[in-house]
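To the structural biology subgroup,

Please find below the input and predicted structure for histidine kinase, which we are adding to the shared reference set this quarter. The sequence is reproduced verbatim from the submission form. If anyone notices a discrepancy with their own records, reply to this email rather than editing the shared folder directly, so we keep one authoritative version.
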Amino acid sequence: MDEAHVRILLVDDRPENIMAMSSLLESPDYLVVTASSGKEALRCVLKDDFALILLDVQMPEMNGFETARLIKSRDKSKHIPIIFITALSQAKENVIQGYETGAIDFIFKPFHAEALRHKVEAFVNFYRHQRTLNEQNELIKIRSAELEEMNLKLLRTAEELHQTEALARVIGETSSDTILTLDAEGRIIAANPALKAMFGISEEDAFGCLVTKLLPKCKETPEAYFTTAENGQHIVETMARHMGGHDFPVEVHRGKASLGGRSIYVYSIRDITVRRQLELERDMRFHELEHQVAERTEELQESNDSLRDILESITDGFFTVDNSWRFLYVNREAEKMLRIRQDDVIGHSMWDVLLESDSMTFRQLHQAALQGTPTHYEVYSQLTGCWLEVRVYPKKQGLSVYFTDTSVKKRMEEDLRNSQARFHKIFQASPSLISIHSTKDGRILDVNDSWTSYTGYTHEEAVMKSVDLNIKTGADDEAELWTASSDKVVHGIKISYSTRSGVVRTGLLSTERIEIQGEHCVLTVITDITERVELELEMSRLDRLHLVGEMAAGLAHEIRNPMTTVRGFLQIAKTSTQRTSGEIINLMVEELDRANTIITEFLSLAKNKTADRKAQSLNSIVEAMFPLIQAEAMLTGKAVQLQLGKAMPLYLDEKEIRQMLLNLALNGLEAMQPGGQLIIRTNTNGTESHPVILEVEDQGTGIQKEVLDKLGTPFFTTKEKGTGLGLAVCYTIAARHNAKLEVTTGPAGTVFSIRFALHPLIENFA
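Predicted structure (tokenized):
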């Protein structure tokens, strides 16, 4: 072993001591290895062997006594002599403790340099002599074992020789490999039975043939081969030829032996076709694995880069420290919040960098490090000037720390509390009846003062007994009972509800699904419109009386004309001695029928009819009226076309819609010349409030501007024999269906559009 391999281990935590003693002990006879701590010394002992260890007693973390005890506890290092170097008191108990840990000597500071050097050299020489003795003893053991082994081999050789001959014969006969015995020129003098299966030639036919017949590429004779071949190079892969004419890969093992003073050669030939295929598959698999490894390596690198990008892009501050509280990584957000730079703090203790850290952070981080459990806390940081939410995750190498500025969250929580307080005030001060129901079982969770005032129930009765207001939607004949468990969210639908005293009141119901402390609820708001409905009914009654008054004057004028005609003819008939002609009687009947028509339409317009409405298809009503309208059109040489769009159910009075459609269609047919076409169409291209449209379009000459403003006025007509009540009835029917009747006219024709609103119940299912 080279002299440089003799090592002295010098252990001291003070760099100046290491430098001084290294210079003092510097020598070409040995190598001085240094360690600055007990842990580093243990790593050195695990890695190398040492002639001597000079060990300082006073060191942080692990002192010299603990380090020596661990070194002596290992079989591999317990033989290394240890000399303690210390400035401690020479008290007897300290010296005894040192010897108990395995030391062979103490050197007290200050020490004599020359004495230390001589002492170290003595241990080096002792180590060198000891190592030489160990090597010689090991060599003697090896030689003795070899002699014993050779003796045993000689004893076994004779016995094995006989067994080998028999075994060789059996192997040759049973082996799947072809075994050829050749002379010096390469002629086959013997072969085993596998020859026939492998090459397609019998042993008798192969006898005397050159081996090149079977192995074309082995052109040199066996004798020439063994003359030039290097030792151990007797295995070759080549191509063999089957007697059938095809080549196949083989592995040839060549051997040489002497028999009766002459040399013979043995070729063992193995078909490696399958092996070559397996090797090819293995190579392909290997390349695939290489590719996969490369891809995986690239993925890992990308993942690592992505992780770093994520850590750099997150809005949380993040840093990691090792077990000595030294910074290992700091992301950008942490740099910004802690007012530090990563390059300046990496490798430095966080407590030196973050001098203004609060006591809670100090305590929480140390607790997480000691207990090895994650911790989570909030603290107001003087360093950042804001509230921080901190999460600490311990690991073997140290701690990972995430922290987030929660000042905005704190403000939001305060705003939420204020919002809840405002909501409570609004909830209680609202004039509407507000209640909160659980969707699970319909329980009333809370009600406001208006609810108790209108219903007559107390707050305790509502919450404890969950009273039922018997809320119904729709008219009496189609009313549906509303419950809090309903999935429908409604807005402003007209309902009726019952008070404690049994009085039925009217309101507008709006609902919204909310969540309170994890429980799904329904917020219901009822705006009581009982007084408003009563007022509207009274106003409607007065309007009808006013309208009837206005219409009465027109009605008297319209009826007076046919009555005057009839009275005149009757007076003539009274004074005349001749019988009244049939023509005069027919004229009087026509005038009376005209008066009757005026009175009928007037009554239809004036009366407050209750609509018999129900959910049905507008298209179905149009299709039912189509044959009647088409027959009327054909009588006057005109055509009718239907363009029906998407069918959406509406709440309609079928008789009234039929009357309105027939009035508009007949008006359109009368406005056109023969050959004109009337189009009746439906679609859902209307506005959000009135999406369904019924249109009646004619190809007449249009309506004059001065006439448009008077459309729908009772007894106003442009027809020679019209009553002026048809359009007025249409406007009344549209109003009863909450629809809008609009007119668009021009030289190419006129379009009457009725825009229907969806019923609230249908709207919620649409």
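Summary notes: The two ends are 96 Å apart (CA to CA). The chain has a mean pLDDT of 81.

Regards,
Lab coordination
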